[in-house]
Every structure is written in C-alpha cells, then in structure tokens.
Amino acid sequence: MKPTFITRTEAKKLGLKHYNGGCRCKHAHHARRRFVSDGNCCQCARLALNRARRARSMAKTREREAAEWARLFQQVKEVWHDRARRFPATIIPERYR
C-alpha cells in the first residue's frame, strides 16, 4: 500500500497534527512525517528534544560533581590547616617564615 501524500494546508483544514508531504527534510530523514503547526520534520524534533534532555542531564551531573569536589577540597584544606597549627616547623620550615 502506497503512502498517501497530503499538503500542509489540506492537513490544516482537516485539523490534523501531522501530515505526510512526500519529500524528505533537509537532514534527509526517511520519515516524511511533519508537524502541521510549523512544518518541521517529526524525527528532527525528536532528536533535538533528546539532545536538549542530554544537555540538561549533563549540566546537573557537572553541578553535582563540582559540589562534591568543592566539599572534598574544603576537607583537605581543613586537614592541612590543622596540621600547620599543630606542627608549624614540619610544614613551614624556618626559612619560609
């Protein structure tokens, strides 16, 4: 069975959300389904949405990792300050004071 092609204006008149225009998008996706609202390829829109989700997820991961590194750095800094207070001669030699 051959797919039926319909123009965007006809799809608008019929109240459809998607239409099959019969031509590929600029990225040459084989799925020829497009949105009636803006004429964009459904496959392109799905890929763009996935990219945006991945970017948001990566940003959250980076924020969590940065907070963890800041916490670890603060702990190391406290340990070094504590050692410097208890053993000043071993940490800071006399010539550097």
Features:
mainly alpha, 2 strands
Q: What fraction of the residues are assigned to beta strands by DSSP?
A: 5-15%
Residue share in helix: 55-70%
Distance between the termini: 88 Å
Please tell me the overall pLDDT: 85
Largest sheet: 2 strands, antiparallel
Offer a concise description of the structure.
The protein is mostly helical and 97 residues long. The chain has helices at 8-14, 42-86, 88-91, and strands spanning 18-20, 33-35. The chain has one domain (8-96).
Question: Can you tell me about this structure?
Answer:
The protein is mainly α and 97 residues long. The chain has three helices and two strands. The chain has one domain. It has helices at residues 8-14, 42-86, 88-91, and strands at 18-20, 33-35. Strands 1-2 form a two-stranded antiparallel sheet. It is rod-shaped and about 85 Å long.
Write the layout of secondary structure elements.
Blueprint: H1 8-14, E1 18-20, E2 33-35, H2 42-86, H3 88-91
Antiparallel strand pairs: 1-2
